[in-house]
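Chapter review: from sequence to fold.
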Amino acid sequence: MAASQQRVQSKPRRIKTLLSSFLRKDPEQERVTSTSKPSDGDNSDTDKCDSQSSKPSVTVTPLNKENFLQRVDTYSTSTWFAKPLELSPLQCARYGWQNIDVDTLCCVSCKEVLYVSLPQPWQKEEYSSACDKVREQLQSAHGKICPWSGSPSPDSFVTISMANHKDQIFQYQQRVTQLVGFFTSLPCVEFSVLKDQPVESSVVLKCLTDFSKGRLDTTREQITDDEWNIVVMMALFGWQKKHSHSLPIVMCECCRKQAGLWNYASRETNLETVENTEDIESDFKTDKDDGEPPHKRIKKIKQSSFNPATEHRPWCPWICVNQASADSKLQKSPLRGDTEASNHPLWQSLLEILLCKADPSKFGSNSPLTNKVQTPPNNAWKAVRRLVSFWQSSEISTKTGTT
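The token string follows.
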């Protein structure tokens, strides 16, 4: 009797459990069924793409700059090496591709995988044809209903426009303000990149330093002139302090390169290098077996200087030639007198903007560096009057001749 009552009481519970199994799925089972795809071969690349794209934030948002930079961060030198500028991480990320393996891309939305295999660069025809094919596949290799092929991220995400001078000067000054806080950790910087400029490097640095000092909210009297030269040099090439980080780390927002300043030779170390090297060379000649090998001690002392140009990645817009600078404001270089500003990297365009703003009388439109002879306004009006009088006289003579 008791057993029959127990079975009667358990029936509603079993019925409830049975109905709930139809109304609600197991979350773990639902996740497995949504990501699993039947295949006969190896799906390791697809699994990587699915695992990296399983975050709910990865959606079709071509106008979201943060998501665009997240896709750029997936590219590294070891997995995306020696690619031309038209296949740079910036261009690939525009069309929703992220890097999941060596020469392997995956769309963050449709999960299609694109394998990129290029011939050797010295095979010019084959290499050019393969690059054109891959560049076309950045759009066509998506799924049929994937929106990335027709709506990529805007060109402004991969280029730096110099049309708005005020905006570029404001961003430059922001980088200067951030780097000023690193004046105790500033490394030794290579200034040789300015040697090909039409203006002497000392004049350029002094002009930029005076301009930057005058726009700072607070005075920094403890910073020396050499430290100011380092700050303006790094800010000129787009280097800024890494956000929300206490260590002296600089980064470029365009190519996503990060550099710890402690890895480079400091100014104090650079001054002591010659003396220490002479002592080590003498020890190397006298006693080779005493203590640590001398050549290792030389490596510890001789650290490389920070080169603001070469520290960027090769496809960074700051050091590459600006291919899309068709702005009317940049058609004439005020320092060089060139008719095409697109023949120079963007940091040179920013340098010209800063110099013209810092000293208009010397580097402006009346600069002797432009090699242009300007006609005074009075002479211009006289020339116009002579031209008008010539037209009038020719019309009168024509009428009298016909009558």
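Two observations follow directly from the output. The longest strand covers residues 97-101. The radius of gyration is 32 Å.
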